[in-house]
Amino acid sequence: MTQPSRAHPWMASSAPGSIKAMLDEIGAASVEEVFEQIPKDHFRTTPLELPPTLSSEIELKRDLVGKLRKNGDCEANLSFLGAGVWQHHVPAVVDEIVGRTEFLTNVWGSYQSDHGRNQAWFEFSSQLGALLNLDVVQLPVYSWGCATGHAIRMAQRITGRSKVIVSQLSDPERLSVIRTYCQPTAMESHIEVVMLAVDPTTGRIDLNDLKSKLGNDVAAVYFENPAYLGTIETEAAEIARLTRAAGAETIVGVDPISLGVMTAPGDYGADIVTGPVQPLGVHMQCGGGAGGFIASRDEEKYVLEYNGFLVSIAETQEEGQLGFGLACPHQNSYGSREHGKDWTGNSTYLWAIAGAVYMSLLGPDGFREVGNLIVSRARYAAKCLSEIPGVKIVWPDSSFKEFLVNFDESGKTVAEVNDLLRARGIFGGKDVSGEDNALGQSALYCVTEVHTASDIRILTKTLKEVLS
Amino acid sequence: MTRIPEFRAAKWNEPVVMEMGRPGARGQLFPAPEGEVTETVGADLIPGSMARKDRPELPEITEFEAQRHYLHLSQMTLGMMGISLFGTCTMKYNSKTTEYATLRPELAEVHPYQHPDTLQGVLEIVHDFDLILRNLSGMDQFIFQAGGGADAAYTMTAVARAYWDDRGMLDQRTEMVTSVQAHPCNPATAAAAGFKVVNLPLEENGYPSLEALKAAVSEKTALIMLNNPDDMGIYNPEIKEWVKVAKEAGALCFYDHANFNGVMGKLSAGELGFDACMFMLHKTFGAPKAGGGPAVGAYGCTDELAPYLPCPVITKNGDRYDIDEDRPKSAGKVREYWGNVPQVVKAYGWARAMGAEGIQLASDISVVANNYMDKKLAEIPGLEISNPSINAYRMEMTRWSLGPLTEETGVSTVDFANRMADYGIDPYWMSHEPWIVAEPFTPEAGELWSKEDIDTWINVIRQIAEDARTNPEMVKTAPHNQAIAQVKGDVFEDPSKWAMTWRAYQRKIVGEDQEKGVA
């Protein structure tokens, strides 16, 4: 051990004499002696070679901010990127609450010591349940794709069947996660992922194809509403009816920010619902804002298959007082290791608190307003872009916040268009031309409440310029 | 100086948010669509079958009421604001400087699908941090997609599947071997990935025998998953032989570096022979835990396994950083995008602020402080160290048992934890399953806490142990100074009573009470 020339602000015992005082108490002559359990030949032989220490806050801040400033961001630019991570408005109060040190440095505690956090968690589930019209909402897992993977595996355990039907036009990012959760074919408990055709004229699921694929070996049908490429699944109730008739579970992925204006999935026959939590007051953070919820009806068949943390309200020893704790704690992998329901671990629970604050700020009228604002501006954007020569909106008038823009007739690729836009301070929609979709040179554009009519006119004007 | 905090938690009797507010109250307004927008697209844009008819039953409160409510909830959350020696989680200071940096729009308002030209700053940090972890571990490549330690274990199982599949041996290599005291995420993720789990029992010395390992590994073993030291504070000195035995059987070796704090800068997973390892950035590397994430399980492996890594991998070519998604042998993704990037930035900031010297000093302090704590705990009657036959200094944490005290007084480790909060001391971690000592608790001193903090913590433990003898009922009914009294656990496994949402509570409990005429 070498005593540092100055004590480190994050280590109390780096002050002169502190280590020695403890060594004296335990009767050890040196620090090396305290590591006596480790055989000598286990210690690393190569020196630790790290970049120079940034020993002051000034230097640390300068390094971090200096590097991050090399990024372009969606505030300084006009961005139309979405596809799983969306630019929504984050109320300032949400940032204040999730930045509270009690929530941020929190580890676990007890039901009493960290009661406030537990209540915030319960309020996340309660408010999301009100949007979904469902009675059970689990604390979020890592992402929407992970939530859907867990939900499909729940359906496998419930039905004893090992096939899931998903849309042919699924987000490849989420689908890759789902395939990981469904295991490779060589595994005994593999779940086969079957692709469902989409009607090319509407962008919606082909019901005839669904009927032909629904058999008594299907565990679940998974569809999203709105779908990955933005379309609203108007036949959702019929899909759920057909699925139920085949003895399978209906899993629906929804965007929670749509639920002020779109029907709650609990009302059209969804059995298990998944979705992203990022739209509910979480910054994009380069994808670090991801989180995914799982919800269902309050039936044992479902509740006993959840993998993670279910927060239940409960009485306390004081008459009339309420507290919160974990329901069914023994079924998760903390309680039952490899015999638990699937697996769990650290997740994205801070975003449950963000979501709780966000939903309480919006209330029923806020969700209606924001939903209406988003769909109005998104449709307006689609309409404006459709009037540009060489540009086609693939499925007009059927979107919520995202819509597919095709550039085939412009003679330019999406990559070329986006390069030209980027040079003019605009991030164009996600390039989906490399995806298995037979949709040519298309980009998925996202318009939300942060995009004004003026922003949309700038996009339209700029696109016109770069395509002419 | 003997000091015991006198603590009274805020007790706001805060209503559930669903009960708050008044019809029509607003906390957030949105602009109406512009005139040109509505003139162009009209109204009622959601197709009839999908247009919501009902009004979601959300609270209607003002912006201030929302702010105050959640501030009150934060005030009723101890959240490490006392002294938290929460073992297995390595409680550290979470830098406000790094927090500040990640909240700036240059990261908070960045989309993962932006063109790499506009991501060079964040890619540089991720890549530089990858190099730091490579140096600390001897691995050749890290990725940050996993959202926690368990997800990194899951990543390992996915990589192992792809590795064996690529060799046409996935139907033969079907087993994962681990120890019964490994963190539950190792067996659980392996089982979820489709592997059969083989658990090795512990011997008197605290770890499984080499003979048991030799008997367990075979041509069926896909991988072994190990942590070392364990949560008892015991280091398995045969670990190099373990890796050798497993590799001779062809198995992959994964080092779960959850307990890295005591060996930072001292051990190298690569030099010990491991094929892969993981670090928890929200634990060892100073990023906040946030009550259970967003977190990062940084997963690193050798060049041999790198082709199977989930995509993307961040690469550097000349002066330019790129996002490599084109990896044909990749195991596929374990989560969308490239990780909880702000947490990676915070961990990078931690490593830079600590430096090589600081990191080595931190491991020194954490092990010395833990042994200081052990010595003080040993002076309290009724407490018993795990594996008492081991006559050696422990590593950075130690498993203790309240067994003798519980036998004497009836006060359990759960009661003890509940009572700790009455002193403003964060309840300790007890133990992962299975409990291998009676009434366990697992403190970890770490490098953050001062000797005075540890002394205060010990004093509280000593005080509660005394109270357990003189007034066991008081301890068993604790807490007494908290926001709420002890939560009754009877509803948590009762399908007729559990209620995971306010809707369910209204339907099952309030509705039933009203039917019965209960006020």
Commentary on this structure:
The complex is a heterodimer of chains A (468) and B (519). Chain A has 15 helices and 15 strands. With 468 residues, chain A is of the alpha/beta class. Chain A folds into two domains: 78-88 and 364-467, Aspartate Aminotransferase, domain 1, CATH 3.90.1150; 92-358, 3-Layer(aba) Sandwich (Aspartate Aminotransferase, domain 2). In chain A, the strands form four sheets. In chain A, strands 2-8-7-6-5-3-4 form a seven-stranded mixed β-sheet, sandwiched between helices. In chain A, strands 11-12-15-14 form a four-stranded antiparallel β-sheet, with helices on one face. In chain A, strand 5, helix 10 and strand 6 form a beta-alpha-beta unit. The radius of gyration of chain A is 26 Å and the shape is globular. The mean pLDDT of chain A is 97. Chain B is an alpha/beta fold and 519 residues long. Chain B has four domains: 1-30 and 57-77, no CATH class; 98-353, Type I PLP-dependent aspartate aminotransferase-like (Major domain) (Aspartate Aminotransferase, domain 2, 3-Layer(aba) Sandwich), CATH 3.40.640; 360-476, Alpha-Beta Complex (Aspartate Aminotransferase, domain 1); 495-519, no CATH class. Chain B is 36% helix and 10% strand. Chain B contains 15 helices and twelve strands. In chain B, helix 7 (185-192) links the parallel strand 2 and strand 3 (196-200). The longest helix of chain B is centred in the last third of the chain and has 38 residues, at 341-378. Chains A and B meet through helix 1, helix 2, helix 3, helix 4 and helix 5 of A and helix 1, helix 2, helix 3, helix 4 and helix 5 of B.
